[in-house]
Amino acid sequence: MDLFGDGALAGPLLRALADYPEFRCAAWAATACAELGLSRAVPLILPLLTDREPLTRSTACEALGRFGDPAAVPALVDLLDDPAEHVRAGAAAALGAIGGAAARAALWRELTLLRHPRAGYLASAVGTFGPAVLEDLIALAADPSPDRRYWACRALGVTAEDRALPVLERLAATDLARAEFGGRVATAARHGLRAAHRIRARRSPPRAGAVGSEEGRAVPAKGSVSARPARDGEGRPPER
After folding, report:
1. Are the C-beta atoms of residues 181 and 148 closer than 8 Å to each other?
2. What's the sign of the alpha-carbon dihedral 9, 13, 18, 24?
3. Nearest to 86 by CA among 120, 42, 114
4. Phi, psi of 87 (to 5 degrees)
5. Strand, helix or coil at 114?
6. Banded pLDDT at 2 (limits 50, 70, 90)
7. Predicted confidence band at 100 (pLDDT cuts at 50, 70, 90)?
8. Which DSSP letter does residue 143 get?
């Protein structure tokens, strides 16, 4: 509301979406409708998911994720195999935001199939389901495939569940296998541990004067597995 004003803009924004594809401002109208919470826009945003421009598709994904309407799930699932990685990432994030059994099943299927080797966006989206995926992720972390173990570690970190921590600690210390793109499973496990500790710290702020705190932040002890620097294999050289 602060960015786009009040409900007086609803009519023009909805008309801009209805005039798609004649006028090429529909993606920005979708963002504005999401900001204003105009749920009437959802049916008008769905056609943008098949636009020829990747930016339009990804913008539509973001808007639909903000609406949280389960009616968008089937169309978003189709984009999990989009040629553009940022569109796939947007669809996965939107499915994670919408939630529900259908979204969870589609994301899990993609995480286990790994049609695209760099699947950090899938791991992040699956992890948002927390306890609902914990058992499956623990099992996936023991899969024979290093790629599946790698992304399972990343997703386990996002769950930030108690039972995820010892699994990540063990893999961080012992699993030196490499995924297809070169990243080590141990590196992913350390990344997952750091993510879990950050999330848990946000959920439960450290006590005043607690040992190992710094300006209100929880700080892992030096030498602990979660404190080691790690490279996750996404855009940076894999650990040697």
Report:
1. no
2. positive
3. 120
4. -75, -45
5. coil
6. very low
7. very high
8. -
